[in-house]
From TrEMBL:
<dbReference type="GO" id="GO:0003856">
    <property type="term" value="F:3-dehydroquinate synthase activity"/>
</dbReference>
<feature type="binding site">
    <location>
        <position position="138"/>
    </location>
    <ligand>
        <name>NAD(+)</name>
    </ligand>
</feature>
<keyword id="KW-0028">Amino-acid biosynthesis</keyword>
<keyword id="KW-0520">NAD</keyword>
<protein>
    <recommendedName>
        <fullName>3-dehydroquinate synthase</fullName>
        <ecNumber>4.2.3.4</ecNumber>
    </recommendedName>
</protein>
<feature type="domain" description="3-dehydroquinate synthase N-terminal">
    <location>
        <begin position="55"/>
        <end position="165"/>
    </location>
</feature>
<keyword id="KW-0456">Lyase</keyword>
<feature type="binding site">
    <location>
        <begin position="58"/>
        <end position="63"/>
    </location>
    <ligand>
        <name>NAD(+)</name>
    </ligand>
</feature>
<keyword id="KW-0547">Nucleotide-binding</keyword>
<dbReference type="Pfam" id="PF24621">
    <property type="entry name" value="DHQS_C"/>
</dbReference>
<dbReference type="InterPro" id="IPR050071">
    <property type="entry name" value="Dehydroquinate_synthase"/>
</dbReference>
<feature type="binding site">
    <location>
        <position position="171"/>
    </location>
    <ligand>
        <name>Zn(2+)</name>
    </ligand>
</feature>
<dbReference type="InterPro" id="IPR016037">
    <property type="entry name" value="DHQ_synth_AroB"/>
</dbReference>
<dbReference type="GO" id="GO:0009073">
    <property type="term" value="P:aromatic amino acid family biosynthetic process"/>
</dbReference>
<dbReference type="Pfam" id="PF01761">
    <property type="entry name" value="DHQ_synthase"/>
</dbReference>
<dbReference type="GO" id="GO:0046872">
    <property type="term" value="F:metal ion binding"/>
</dbReference>
<feature type="binding site">
    <location>
        <position position="129"/>
    </location>
    <ligand>
        <name>NAD(+)</name>
    </ligand>
</feature>
Length: 351
């Protein structure tokens, strides 16, 4: 087991390893009731606690106002109090919705996350971002609400569908480009090991990605900007501006990590066209992602449709689009107001 501290104002630990789900009772100390917010078919034993079972729809369908309201009504009917605890068991969508339930019930109750997907482990469960989707886009309604703890039990990955494992690696590779190039070196040296749930390589990739996120959110929890004018938490949105647009226009049929892969290839080309990034590093994006089976080509929607969604991206300011780009490996910056010519030309790299 590896323990990774997240040193925010309300500090907590992320525990990574096989069997760490057994640590759950220690994180529930003092509670009598637990609201178990979980994806279909996923659960954990909670002996000794009164359990309110809140099973969610699968995937992104869980992240709606209707589902959120249903959970609130169930909590109210059960008389759920401030001393009770929400536990989430599932992938990123379960963590986002369950975290938002905890953030909003009685203005905030304790929550513990047990992510069961690679994406949930390296992204959604760490950092306290919670939220739901709306008709206008993804994650536009939400709150920051830090968990009391996160248990990343690598045993869950043994039964994870391969497509979901591959998708999660999109977020892992992102951490490599923006902060920890050793992640890229590990993938390039042995892509097969990165895809093996039982390998030491994948375990190290998970730990490294979690450490990247823990360090970033400790310095800028609420995405207001890092110290000394650094990019801060926005760096974790590398590739996400186009990614969220792809997800939205396809009705979330493209997996998040797949969309992030496309978004990174796009933004690398955008940075290259803007004179920010060298040709070799831009091309490295597609090479690393393709070696893991992630998509690097996609032209299934008119760019105007994607652009309309990107204009309501959370990083936008007024009518000005802002993108996280690289100047070099692990050297991110914000590109503000790129020309429409470059925006459109960069999309052609995905053709």
């Amino acid at each position: 087991m590896t323990t990774i501290p997240v040193a925010t104002a309300a500090p907590y630990d992320v525990e990574v390893g096989r069997g760490v789900r057994d640590r759950l009772p220690a994180l529930l100390e003092g509670a009598q009731r637990v609201a178990l917010v979980h994806a279909p078919g996923l659960t954990v034993p909670l002996d000794g606690f009164e359990v309110l079972d809140l099973e969610l729809p699968d995937g992104e369908a869980a992240k709606t106002a209707d589902v959120l309201t249903s959970c609130w009504e169930r909590l109210g009917a059960a008389g759920f109090t401030r001393s009770d605890v929400v536990v989430t068991v599932g992938g990123g969508a379960t963590t986002d919705l369950g975290g938002f339930v905890a953030a909003t019930w009685l203005r905030g109750v304790r929550v513990v996350h047990l992510p069961t997907s690679l994406l949930g482990m390296v992204d959604a469960a760490v950092g306290g971002k919670t939220g739901i989707d709306t008709g206008a886009g993804k994650n536009l309604v939400g709150a920051f609400h830090e968990p009391a703890g996160v248990l990343c039990d690598l045993g869950f990955l043994d039964t994870l569908p391969e497509a979901e494992l591959v998708s999660g690696l999109g977020e892992v590779v992102k951490c490599g480009f923006v902060a920890d190039p050793e992640i890229l070196a590990l993938v390039e040296k042995n892509p097969s090991a990165a895809l093996d749930p039982a390998s030491d390589v994948l375990a190290e990739l998970v730990e490294r990605a979690v450490r990247v996120k823990a360090e970033v959110v400790a310095g800028d929890l609420r995405e207001t900007g890092g110290a000394g004018g650094s990019v801060g938490r926005e760096v974790l949105n590398y590739g996400h501006t186009l990614a969220h647009a792809v997800e939205k226009v396809t009705g979330y049929t493209v997996r998040h990590g797949e969309a992030v892969a496309l978004g990174m290839v796009y933004v690398a080309e955008l940075a290259r066209l803007a004179g920010s990034l060298d040709d070799e590093t831009a091309a490295r994006h597609a090479a690393v992602l393709a070696s893991l089976g992630l998509p690097t080509r996609w032209h299934e929607a008119p760019f105007d449709d994607l652009l309309a969604v990107m204009r309501v991206d959370k990083k936008a300011r007024g009518s000005t689009l802002r993108f996280v780009v690289l100047e070099a490996l692990a050297e991110p910056r914000i590109l503000t107001g790129p020309s429409e010519e470059h925006l459109r030309a960069a999309y052609e790299v995905l053709a």
